[in-house]
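agent> fetching stored inputs for the manganese (II) ion docking request
agent> found them:
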Amino acid sequence: MKKSAINLLGIPYDNKSSFLRGSAQAPSIIRQILHNTSSSYVAENGVDIMDDVRLEDLGDLKVQNYLQISHQIKALQKSSPFIFLGGDHSITYQTVIAMNEKHGPFDILVFDAHTDLYDNFQGDRYSHACPFARIMEDNLTGNLIQVGIRTVNAHQWEQAHKYGVEVITMREIDRLSQLSLTNPLYVSIDLDAFDPAFAPGVSHHEPGGLTPREVINFLHKIDVPIIGADIVEYNPTRDHQNITAALAAKLLKELTGIMAAS
Ligand code: MN
Ligand code: MN
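agent> prediction call returned; pasting tokens
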């Protein structure tokens, strides 16, 4: 089996969090859990992510300036797919800019309790509540599909309609099984998409969310190439017994296995 390469890059940046800081500590803890030998490296599709894949850990980006993140990623000059560990969700605007120059058109699939479509939040257009407004304004994606949404105000619905976002709320989560994907995909996982019972280590607890099983099963059904992914908003200061870090590490393992097989 020819080993496919996947780049792992931490972006320990939480300056754009509106409520609580802490997600900048996430990448190193997720790595610790991934490598702590309590669990094997075999993903559910049988791919050993340390043996069958060349998972290249590029370490953490040293971020000085938010708007430089995309340039720093491009400067790494890697053509193979990336998995990014946030950081807060603001990083996704920057990672998508970087992916857009390397890959052709792609769609974005987001798991999140929130749409993150604010035109600006508390005066900041780059807040972690805004990345998908910036992505849509800049035409960086084909379709934007958001799953797990469960708190949307009138402004956000207006934005969703303006940009043609496909919103699958928790109330109509059954629609997820009918979702068909046709284009290469970027997957963005905000851990607050999960019910806080499974993922307490996030800044914004929003009960009534997804289960890990629902998300993992859906990820394994994706049959289009995944050109990049991120796992964001893990906040260790809110976690219990690293339970959310374990979920993030599990998602990292499964995404790696899926991207290697695709
Ligand atoms: Mn988010
Ligand atoms: Mn969120």
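agent> quick read of the result: The longest strand covers residues 4-11.
agent> awaiting further instructions
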